[in-house]
Amino acid sequence: MAEYKTKEQKRKFYDSQHWKQLRVKVKQRDNYECQECKRKGRVTIDTNEYSESAKRKKIMLVVDHIKEIEDHPALAFDEDNLQTLCVNCHNKKHGRYVDYSLWQKSTKWNDEWW
Ligand SMILES: [Zn+2]
Ligand SMILES: [Zn+2]
């Protein structure tokens, strides 16, 4: 059983071809909409996926593990354990604050991001 406890193990996971294909699939399944916003009756889509002009909005989506892979490694590739979230909801879920303007410029690795 694979483990995703260390930063290195997680990096390997998020760098994997399998994950990259899966997150595309999940975003398609979720119509490029944030599922958490959707539950609240809002629609937040990944404008980056569409037009050049919409890029200004910079709404980014991540594919989130509903149950963290650290605690549930068996669910790492389980589509039922995956949901599309916008960065705002994702950060709220994980209780962290990230400065996106900084992130844009840095190449620093951030778990579920790419
Ligand atoms: Zn959201
Ligand atoms: Zn997450």
Automatic annotation (TrEMBL):
Keywords: Hydrolase, Nuclease. It comes from Halolactibacillus halophilus. Transmembrane segments: none annotated. Pfam families: HNH (PF01844). InterPro entries: HNH (IPR002711), HNH_nuc (IPR003615). The keyword Nuclease applies. This is Putative HNH nuclease YajD. It comes from the Bacteria. Belongs to the HNH nuclease family. Residues 21-91 form the HNH nuclease domain. The keyword Nucleotide-binding does not apply. CDD domains: HNHc.
